[in-house]
Design a protein that fits this description.
Elements: E1 3-8, H1 13-22, E2 28-35, H2 44-47, H3 58-61, E3 66-67, E4 79-82, H4 86-98, E5 102-105, H5 121-124, H6 130-138, E6 143-146, H7 150-162, E7 167-176, H8 188-191, H9 202-213, E8 216-217, E9 222-223, E10 228-235, E11 242-250, H10 256-264, E12 279-282, H11 290-293, E13 302-310, E14 313-320, H12 324-340
Parallel strand pairs: 1-2, 1-4, 2-3, 4-5, 5-6, 7-10, 12-13
Antiparallel strand pairs: 7-11, 8-9, 11-14, 13-14
Helix pairs in contact: 1-12, 7-12
Length: 344
């Protein structure tokens, strides 16, 4: 039996990626798309300025876009995916959860809220149990689940495997693709022949979300991991794929062979969108590279390479597709986990 789903804010860049990933999905049937008042009432093919590298699915192009409010959405939907701007989502998502909808959201609001699960399924799927706390505290019949920031999501699966060595301190420098800023986020005059060494709010997200994702759920909340994370986030002129240089300091002696073996042993899950392996490890120290490696595992895998010793641990490079694994694909995988674990 298929799970009927909808997309909140389905006409933007991430919303379009949701549409693409849901096309032909083995478990989910896309039944509803919402957008702003300017788009409501129009066919999706007219409302969305389609920019994804595949055609709009025929059955989706004819869908009438609905207003983004609970009263405008069918009550027989099992799950909603959200790609709303965070300022809008902060008000809209709680209203939908209060109305009984379960929401898997890519929006940045409430990721660090005490009662909101922030989840990478292969890393901390047990944090979904925080939904019970959320429902008790807020009186919701629905639920709100978040995936992390697109740069955080590329790094944390690798850090999760290193935690067995006593993860103590992490420094990361990112080289982030322009698509992470949205279609109109960075002008060509800003980025061509250039690197922008600041992305507003991005460093703080990496530094805080990582600790929540690696933390432990004690039945009432998440105790943040005590790892110290320092991030420097940079925008570079690649289209898709965030490449990151990571320095990990550990309490135990660890070498490149240990790290590569840990990466290769990273657990995956039996979910439709879960990659196998989760982390693709390259012996070639010049890899991973965005143009060559961002679509590994259908864009859902993390690529890693260039592992080498440092005086206090190891340094390596990792990469993930920022609009697939780092955005729509992450929410999709969380939705699959919600279905698998019986939350919808």
């Amino acid at each position: 039996m298929s799970v009927r789903v909808g997309i909140l804010g389905g006409t933007g860049a991430v919303g379009q990626r949701f549409v693409q990933l849901l096309d032909g999905h083995s478990e989910f049937e896309l039944a509803t798309i919402t957008a702003s008042e300017n788009s409501a009432g129009k066919p999706y093919s007219e409302a969305a300025k389609w920019r994804v590298d595949s055609p709009i699915p025929d059955d989706v192009g004819d869908l009438t876009v609905r207003a983004t409010e609970p009263s405008a959405v069918p009550d027989d939907l099992d799950l909603l995916f959200s790609s709303l701007p965070s300022g809008v989502a902060a008000d809209v998502e709680p209203a939908f959860a209060e109305a009984g909808y379960v929401i898997s959201s890519n929006s940045s609001n409430a990721r660090m809220a005490d009662d909101v699960p922030l989840v990478i399924p292969e890393v901390n799927h047990g944090h979904l149990d925080l939904i019970e706390v959320q429902r008790d505290e807020r009186g919701w019949d629905g639920a709100l689940v978040k995936n992390p920031n697109c740069s955080t999501i590329a790094m944390v699966p690798t850090l999760s495997t290193l935690d067995q060595f006593g993860l103590d301190r992490v420094h990361v420098a990112t080289l982030q693709a322009v698509s992470g800023a949205g279609y109109s986020g960075v002008t060509s005059m800003e980025i061509l022949d250039n690197v922008v060494p600041h992305i507003g709010g991005e460093e703080e997200k990496m530094e805080t979300e990582t600790r929540k994702l690696l933390g432990s759920f004690d039945g009432s909340g998440v105790d943040l991991h005590d790892v110290e994370v320092s991030a420097s986030c940079n925008r570079v002129p690649t289209l898709d794929g965030h490449l990151e240089n990571v320095w990990a300091e550990t309490n135990r002696d660890v070498g490149p062979t240990d790290v590569e073996e840990a990466f290769r042993d990273a657990p995956t899950l039996d979910l439709p969108s879960a990659p196998d392996p989760l982390i693709e490890v390259f012996d070639d120290e010049s890899r991973p590279q965005p143009r060559l490696d961002r679509t590994l595992g259908g864009g859902m895998a993390v690529a890693a390479g260039g592992v080498q010793d440092t005086p206090s641990g190891v340094q390596y490079n990792c990469l993930a597709h920022n609009t697939i694994r780092g955005a729509a694909g992450a929410s999709l995988l969380n939705g699959e986990l919600l279905a698998e674990d019986g939350w919808i």
